[in-house]
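Query form — protein NmrA-like domain-containing protein

QUESTION: What is the three-dimensional structure of this chain?
INPUT:
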Amino acid sequence: MVNIAIAGGSGQVSHEIIDALVASKKHTITILSRKGAPAVLGTPDIRWKTVDYDDKLSLIDALRGVHTVLSFIQLLSDPGQKSQRNLIDASIAAGVKRFSPSEYGSKGTVHMSWWEGKEKIREYLEEVNAGGQVLEYTLFQPGLFLNYLAYPHKTSKHVDPLQSVFDFENKRAILVEDYEDAIMTLTTVADLAAVIARAVEYEGKWPKRGGICGNRMTFSEVIELGGRIRGEPFKIDKVSIKDLEAGDLKTSWNLEAVHKAVSDEQASALLKAVSIGILLSSIKGAWDISNEWNELLPDFKFTQAEDFLGAVWEGKP
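ANSWER: The structure tokens for NmrA-like domain-containing protein are given below.
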């Protein structure tokens, strides 16, 4: 049994991981939140602690006796990543053994300004461990959620559908000219949750880089798969590096569905930035995820893209 604290436990991805941890019936789970506990927690296996991330002493007190901290703090709502830095400091002071920062996406952040906070936290974790390990940690990185290629259909309990540059609904995609072989790693939310549930029980040392590789595919392979599943070739909008680097997205369509954490005022600019950022970062290897957790959990069977998407889109117009 592991005593686990979940920071930012009200988010969609964190809910998926919490469900997987509860289902294992092996752990004590405490949710740390700025908000008070809801009237009904849904299960007696979960505790709730209201915390102030600006108060390190209260954080230390909340983390006493905790073995593993999983952070899901929303990066965009944590300017300067002060909350996560304080959480790391408090974890060390409270004697926490393992820490997972708010990651759950690409390995690189180049051209993705909304994820700049990840680099700051990665650097901080290196800094606090520079003189010798004081906090074991891993960066859980599954690439892009395969579930997003099912948009607008919801394929997980908590994570809402979001669009990507691969639009299976309308049989179209966007790719960078001359970079059809750029790599995109696609992993289901359920597989991410299952791997994390196994990882908290893992008795060996956590790898710093925690790649989770469900499906490693080129852009052209994803598009070809989409054509087979949807019954006709995808319409391709090709964009140039020069235009993207200039902030121009010269396509016939763009993303429309935005994450709930993003305000209406931010939505339009962010959706454009997300498309440009994913495309530019992909050609620099940001989504070519490593496979550390695949190797550490060799018996785990990942959901295959063709099986998953075939089932989602079967019979749909």
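ADDITIONAL NOTE: The longest strand covers residues 28-33.
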